[in-house]
Amino acid sequence: MMKKITAIITVLAACALLTACNKSTENFNDFDDIKLVRTGFANRRVFENLAALEDYVDLAVVGKFTGDPEQEERYRYNEFFGKDVLYFVTSTNTIEIEKVLIGDAEIGDTLQIVQDYGIVDGDLVTFSDLTPMQKGDEWLFFLKKESDSDIYFCAGDSDGRFPVPNAENEPMPLSDCPDLGVYDEQNFMWNTYNEILEKYDI
């Protein structure tokens, strides 16, 4: 099942040769005075229950972000503005695995995780329902590997990352429910989360 919000993924491939990319490392830990800009969202898979999520993913792990994200900004020339304008941004971070629930991995392994957001001109620009990846934050991840790289993404965006009970993550004032790791509680899969806690005894 697909949730159609605003289709942008197909644009990325079609316009790749017409775009410019900037890469940078964002060491940004104070979100008190930053503006949240929620822009168009990509089509994404939605998982109605834990069984569907488990069938889709390559890995399910508990892990902790070990560094600051590195982001890649994509720009495309806009005739109206007469200049290159941002049309997509992603951030990549590293997690260290603390517990393996599904898949071929071991405690202590590290993985690269990508998420569709970045800090641009002092704004947090996001194409994702998930809050930013902050160093030291600990989450339960249901991950799918990208087909052409060793990078993983959270399955179904906010359907693929969940809180670890009693984890003490960094503050996130841009969210009304930061402990859940999403901006809006309506986007959190409570039924799936409760299934996870019961099945895996986390």
Summed up:
With 202 residues, the chain is mainly β. The protein has three helices and 13 strands, in the order βαβββαβββββββββα. Strand 9 and strand 10 form a beta hairpin.
What does this structure look like?
The chain has one domain. The strands form 3 sheets. A 5-stranded mixed beta barrel has the order 5-7-8-12-11. A 3-stranded mixed sheet has the order 3-10-9, with no helix packed on it. Strands 1-4 form a two-stranded antiparallel ribbon. The chain starts with a strand and ends with a helix. By secondary structure, it is mainly beta. It contains 3 helices and 13 strands; from the N terminus they run βαβββαβββββββββα. The protein has helices at residues 9-14, 50-56, 190-200, and strands at 2-3, 19-25, 35-38, 44-45, 59-65, 70-78, 83-102, 110-115, 117-120, 123-126, 138-145, 151-154, 161-163.
**Strands across the major sheet, in which order?**
5-7-8-12-11
What count of helical segments does DSSP give? 3
Overall body shape: globular
Order of helices and strands: EHEEEHEEEEEEEEEH
- Termini separation comes to 28 Å
Which residues sit in consecutive blocks of at least 5 with pLDDT less than 50?
Answer: 1-19
Helix/strand class: mainly beta
- Which percent range fits the helix content? 10-25%
Estimated share of beta-strand residues:
35-45%
Q: Tell me the quaternary state.
A: single chain
Biggest sheet, open or closed, and with what strands and sense?
5 strands, mixed, barrel
Number of strands: 13
Total separate domains: 1
Average pLDDT across residues? 85
Please tell me how large the radius of gyration is.
17 Å
